[in-house]
Amino acid sequence: MHPPGVHSNLSLLALSNAPRLRPAPDLAARAYASRSPFVAHPRPAGDVFCSNAEIRRIGERLLDHSLPRAEWTHAACCAAVIYFMREKPEMDVKHRMPTMIRAYDAATGAPDADPARCHETITQVMLHVIQRFLTVVDEHASLVDAVNLFLRSPFARIDYLLLFYSRERLFSAEARRRFVEPDVRAMAR
How high does pLDDT run on average in the chain? Predict the structure, then answer.
């Protein structure tokens, strides 16, 4: 039995023989509780976000550059991508996200040496991974459940990318500036 929001063919997500995703067993119980926008729920262990509104706020504040720099994390970036892909499909997030991040970086005065600045290769690969991930998540699953499911998966971890890239190549200045192809193993397209 799979929790609400997750297709039974979850193994189809195997991105170039990646480890199989195992959804957390508490997802079904939280799916019902998270439907009410008027109830504040404590953050379950392992979850990054508590509500759909919290995720939408990150996405909208990224767009208008009002998101505090301290809140711009890898998890926030993944949440914004899932929000845009699910709720703003007209946005063409795969093409616009790097530009949005660079505009946000410039507007918030992020120094060039800031590791949270736009990293083109990581951004492009994570966009691809998230897009593939969303193909196995039921379109009726709540936004917060889809985001937290992704963030609990091995696919959300930056070290997952090291299955495809050497550390030297992934974290090189060239990979930060422009997309570079994997040098360890090709990713499924």
Answer: 79
Place of tokens 């998230």: 130
Instruction: Give the residue carrying structure tokens 């301290």.
Output: 70
Q: Residue 17 — pLDDT band, cuts 50, 70, 90? A: very low
Q: What are phi and psi of 81, to 5 degrees?
A: -60, -45
DSSP-derived secondary structure for 24-88: -TTHHHHHHHTT-TT------TT-S---HHHHHHHHHHHHTT-S-GGG--HHHHHHHHHHHHHH-
| pTM: predicted TM-score of the whole model, two decimal places | 0.75
CA distance linking residue 72 with residue 84, whole number of Å: 16
Rounded to whole angstroms, how far apart are CA atoms 13 and 21?
Answer: 8
Max Cα-Cα span within the chain: 48
Q: How far apart are CA 176 and CA 150, in angstroms?
A: 23
